[in-house]
Amino acid sequence: MKKIFFDINKIMIGLLLVAGLFASCKKLIEIPANPPSSITQQEQFADSATTLSAVAGVYTYNPGNGFAYSDGNLTLCAGLSADELTTSISSDAQQFYTYTITPLNNIVSSNLWPLPYQSIYQVNSVLSGVTNNNGLSAAFQKQITGEMEVVRALYYFNLANLFGGVPLVTTTNYAATDRLPRSTVTAIYAQVKTDLTDAGKKLTASYPSAGRFRPNLYTAIALLAKVNLYQGNWQNAYNEADSVIRLGGFNLEPNLNNVFLDGSVEAIWQLPANGLYSVYTDAANLLPQYSGASPNYPVTPFLLNAFETGDQRLPNWIGSTSVNNQTLYYANKYKNLNSAVTTEDQMILRLGELYLIRAEAAAQLNNLTQALADINAIRQRAGLSPNPADAASQTAVLNAVMRERRVELFCEWGNRWFDLKRTGTAAAVLGAEKTGFTANAALYPVPQVQIQLDNLLAQNPGY
Asked: CB count, 10 Å around CB of 424?
């Protein structure tokens, strides 16, 4: 932990400002003209204009210097760990597919662990800068605080699902964060829910800027619904997903190929890919780089075989290419490899997922009629007819929900990997499909460099 936070201590104010400059696309946040190149903490949060430059830095689509998940590694690595993606390339990424990850794995050491913490520091810095700030209106303080709490909750939710318990950092005080032990998963989830609950009291139903790029009230509620689903709090998950679906003003995008575009009516929270990084990284990772090239990470036969006949998600969200007379298939939700075109945004939360959260929660509450209605709303959009046979029992409906999650949410935010783990089916499913999976593989290793720098950190079992 010391390495992460000590380095940031020297550069954070400049980083916040520079990141804000990268995020200066007008459709996200307006940045003041000709801002200075170096300012103090007090100057950074002197007024709403300078504060927004720091806020813009939090949302910057700039791998390694802004929004942590801009690099696409969560989707890639979780897809390889689950049964969505494969690769023949000998690399650190391949270790996720073969369950041979070590604490020296470069993606873990340089991306999955440190980048969220770097971004959490940015969030904590903004929270510190706006709290009790007499230069900012009370309404502005509430808005920015709520936004930052949602962002921090997202980071800790993903860290807990990738690594288990992790150090919990909610301050920029280096004396307090120089060396920290791992908090429990229970404590991490408690902080996530505290942040989201408080954000729900501070945010409004209106988005604070053009588009859906900064969290609003329903963004906080949607993420809270996901958290409660993962914890098995079925009634809360149902109520929150139901609120978003009924009251949030979102709609299922009727055209599958419009779901991930800028301006999607399904989007609850998107992040625009701007400026120097205008190609969404999932496209760069998963699409063939040129005509006739092999995709680096083809989808597995297990994913292909999960689609029913007539499912329009298959031709619209799975691409194919012929290489040496062999047909290879790849995830094709994001289709843009042209850096001059910025029609696609990184989708963080969307309405389709909320329908499936409500469906699963409803099924767990034995409200099978509602669960099937939500499943069939997603199926209808995919060109499929309802399947009344799934109404036979609660178990059958829950199985139908998980089938639908698999083909609707594939290669998005590690949903399949997380689903297999939270439902306790990872060993049975992955053990039958692949070799090398053990119970210890469900969590990634803590980077060795962090353990060397922080003797309070404990390694996950099996590493």
From this structure: 8
